[in-house]
Structure formats: structure tokens, C-alpha cells
Specification:
354 residues; alpha+beta; Nucleotidyltransferase, domain 5; 5-stranded mixed beta sheet; 4-stranded antiparallel beta sheet; 22 strands; 27% helix; 28% strand
Amino acid sequence: MDGYVLGIDIGTTSVKVCVLSLKENVVVAEQSKDTQSNVPSDQGIDGNKQDVPKIISAINTCVAKFSKDLLQQVIRIGVCGQMHGVLFWHHRCGKAWERIEKDGTLIRYDVKPEQVSNSYTWQDNRCSKEFLNSLPVPDSHLQIHSGFGIATMFWMFRNRPEELEKYDHAGTIQDFTVSMLCDITQHYISEQNASSWGYFDCKKYAWNLELLDAAGFPVKMLPEIKRTGEVAGLLADTWHSIPKGTPIGVAMGDLQCSVLSTIEKEDDAVLNISTSAQIAYVVNQLEEKELMGPPKEKPMIHLPYFDGSYLAVAASLNGGNSLATFVKVLQQWILEFGFSVPQASFRQGMGEAY
């Protein structure tokens, strides 16, 4: 098959973009950029928020560096990103993004900060164990943890209701990006990202809507679920020379995509070491009892993968989280002294020390 696919990965600290040749199945061009998007949280080191406009700007910067001739041959766009996190937006005063044009031609989309919240990442620890225990038990085999989208929304609903009332949409940063590029007010989420939020029934491919509604949760903010691989919409306009009408898939989870791009044989296992660490392998068939709630403490969890299969994952988050917490404490101290050090400098210094 001729043509190219543009792939966008929105990570915790950086954005990576590549162009894949469908005919040769090789990456022909790639770019990356540190987003430097972390912002101070009113929860101190327990909070972890990121500036959405900076993330979107990093995406635009990366895509703009590819040659126009190459981008004109893109026939599909795929987006994945950091799982578990959540941001909020509304379209009451027009769409939550704006077109930046030059001579009538779209250059990029920019976020309207007054209509979009910060992104609360998977590293957000505002939900204490006591708070999590006060939430309804999910009708799912998957547990709920601090940093998971619905846990964060529950915390906002109970502690900052006036903040949550400003918005009517919720999604991951990658879900927001897909809606923006399609220029649509509908918002979708794949089962991969939905399962990372909690309160998602993998057997029914559905939210625990009745359970959440009974707890007073704002269920109308939840995105509609689409199967991984489905098209979420079409590129609304020519964007950095990529043709208008290019199909864009529903956003995927970065863990699943990292395994998909690494695995070579069906019985391979993949060890990922980055901000967190996981070892994972693909399970084509899973016994129904493994997907039945309520969730139990298990050393391994099963997450939706592709084509109805599951990813068996054993995760060890301590190493990356400990290092990230140490970096955040240092950044907080330096900010209090009136200075600012770019994230890239911290990452480089911490990486050398580590």
C-alpha cells in the first residue's frame, strides 16, 4: 500500500512524531520535543498538572519540521498518549480551540486557555487511600488508583465542584487532540484509554454509568467509547500540508502502542523502562472470570489490547515515580526562591545522576 501514516505520541514529558511508510513499513522521518508543560499545583507535590497549550504547541512544532512533499502523501493519522490522565473543556463560547490562519490558509490550531483546563496526569497523587476507599466499588476487574481519570474527577466533584462546573467535556490529552484536529464537538475515547480511567466494564465495553450516576458523578462529561482502530473523524482542513479529509483514528494508549511496535512473535514479552516500568505480553483469549468484578489485588492486570485481545501487564511504578517526585520537590523549592529551571535541564541532570 502506497502512502504514509503520521504517528503522534503525547508522552508525559515530551511529544514524539514520526512518518511511517506503508509500502516499506519503516519510519522515514521523526521529530521530538520536550513539552516543558508542568505547572505548579495547589496540591503541592501531591498534584501533577500540565499546560495543554504548550503540549499542542509542541505537536505543531514537530509536524512543521517535516517536508511538505512528505506530508502531502500522508493518508492516515494515528495518535496515542499518556494514559490515565484527564483534562476538561467546553464549547459554550465557540469551540475550545481556534484556527490560526495566514492568507486564508490554516497554519495550526491553538487552544483557548479560558475554555480548557490543565491536564491532570497519571502522576497526580491528590486522591488519598481514604478518599479512594470512599468511592463506589467499580463493576470492573480493574482497580481505581490516584491519577486515574475518574478518580480525579470524583475528587474535583467533591472538593472543587465550582471548577468542574465550568466544563462539559472530559478526555485524555490525546482524545482532546483528535477532537481538535477533526474540529468536532463530539469527543471519543478508545477502550484502551477508558480502561485506564477506571469504572470501565471490559466485557460490555461500557462505563459503569448507573453506578456512577447513583454516586452523583457527572456522567454527561464522559466521552463516547469507540473501538481501537475505528476512525474518530477526518482532518478538518489541510494541516501542515497534510490533506484535508485524512482519516484520524480514535486515540490509543501509549502502553499498548509501545508493545505493538516492539513485539515480533506471539509469545514475546516486552519490558518497558521509562517514567514507569512494565513487563507485558499478549493474551489472545481470556477466561471470562478474569474480567469479572469487583477488582482484586493482583500482581498482574489485563488491559484491552487490539482486536479483542488483552495485554497481561505487571507494572512497577516506584522507580520512575520516586525519581519524578524528587525532581518535583527540587523544582518547587527553586520556584519558591524565584527561579525557574527548564524540565529538559532537570531531566538531563537527573538522568546522568540516575
